[in-house]
Design goal:
With 160 residues, this protein is of the alpha/beta class. The protein has four helices and six strands; from the N terminus they run H-E-E-H-E-H-E-H-E-E. Strands 1-5-6 form a three-stranded mixed β-sheet, with no helix packed on it. It is globular, with a radius of gyration of 17 Å.
Length: 160
């Protein structure tokens, strides 16, 4: 029994260490790679229009079944910014699809810095954000997308 408990604990620890970043982004067997982009969500916690935006995100992700979600700037637009960012990114993560973000001019205007927002998003499952260097608020980064039938890099996506 102790051996079984140990193995279960080990499995859970190893599984917890895996993230979306441990999986390769890769074209499917048909040679396709679908990206869905959301921009200027301007999410406000408790706002009816913002709730509708989350429903629309759900609808699009269920319909399109993308290989990657890219959220480009102005994600949150009110206090509490950290809670808003968590809500939006968890809404995406529940679809179990890799996602990345970049910031816009409004994201840092509401009591949270880009550093705090970036670090929060890195805790959400399925994020593909790289580790942030200590001296950088939100780094530029690249993602590689592999070919469908080999491990060759087919495309490089730049996020600035």
């Amino acid at each position: 029994m102790k051996k079984l408990a140990f193995l279960c604990s080990l499995f859970l620890c190893l599984g917890a260490g895996l993230s979306a970043k441990d999986q390769e982004l890769k074209y499917n067997k048909d040679g396709k790679f679908k990206i869905v982009q959301f921009t200027d969500i301007h999410y406000k916690v408790g706002n009816e229009t913002s709730a509708q935006s989350l429903e629309l995100i759900d609808m699009i992700l269920k319909r399109e079944k993308p290989d990657l979600v890219v959220v480009t700037g102005d994600i949150v637009y009110a206090r509490p910014a950290l809670e808003g960012m968590r809500i939006v990114t968890e809404q995406i993560a529940k679809h179990k699809v890799p996602f990345v973000i970049t910031f816009g001019n409004h994201d840092r205007e509401f009591e949270a810095t880009n550093t705090e927002l970036y670090d929060l998003v890195r805790t959400i499952p399925y994020n593909y954000l790289p580790e942030r260097p200590a001296d950088v608020a939100s780094p530029d980064y690249v993602l590689e997308v592999k070919a469908s039938k080999s491990d060759e890099v087919a495309n490089i996506l730049y996020f600035l």
